[in-house]
Amino acid sequence: MRGVFHAGATSTMRLRTLLALTSTFGILTATAEEPRSYQLDPFAQATAGFTGCPTAQPPVLTEQEMRTTAHQRVERGTSCCLAGTCECGGAYKRDPEINERVVAAIRGDTRFRNTSVWVTTTRKFVTLQGCVRSAAQGKALQRLVKDQRDVAIVWNETTVGVKPPAKKP
C-alpha cells in the first residue's frame, strides 16, 4: 500500500511541477515575444523646409534581424581590419560622426534650406531621403554629401516634389 501511495504522490508532484514550469514558460515566452525594434545606424533630419514632405523613418530591425546584422557587421569589420582596408574596431565605427558631419554640411548650405532631407550612414555609405525642389537641387545635394570626409558612397533616394501617398487597393 505504501508503494501505491508514494507513486500517486510522485505523480501529483510531477503534475504540479509540470504545470508550474508550463506557466512560467508561458510568461517568459509572452515577455520575449513583445515586439521590439532596434536601430543600429545613425539617422537624423538635416532640413525641414519642404512642407508636405512625408517624414522618413529610421531603418529599424526586429530582434532576430538585429542579431543577424550585428554578427555580419562583426565579421565584416574583422575581415576589413585584417585586410587593411578599414580602421580596426569596425567598418561602422565612424558612422555617427560621418552622419553628424553630413547633416551639419547640409544645414549649413543655404541652397538646401527649402528641402526636407533625412540622413542615414551605414559603413560610410550615406543614404539621403526626403524631398527636393528640382533634379538639379538633388544632384547638388548629392555632390555636397559625396565631398564630405570619409563618405564612400551616396545613395540619393530623395524625390523631386512631394511624392503622393500610395493608393489603397
Overview of this structure, please?
Residues 27-31 have low confidence and may be disordered. The protein is globular. It has a 4-stranded mixed β-sheet, with helices on one face. The protein is α+β, with helices and mostly antiparallel strands and 169 residues long. It is 46% helix and 17% strand.
The spatial strand order of the largest sheet comes to 1-2-3-4
Helix content: 40-55%
- Could you list the spans in which at least 5 consecutive residues all have pLDDT below 50? 27-31
Q: DSSP helix count?
A: 4
What is the N-to-C succession of helices and strands? HEHHEEHE
Keywords:
169 residues, alpha+beta
Topology (SSEs and partners):
Blueprint: H1 2-32, E1 43-48, H2 63-83, H3 95-108, E2 116-122, E3 125-132, H4 135-146, E4 153-160
Parallel strand pairs: 3-4
Antiparallel strand pairs: 1-2, 2-3
How is this structure best summarized?
With 169 residues, the protein is an alpha+beta fold. It contains four helices and four strands; from the N terminus they run αβααββαβ.
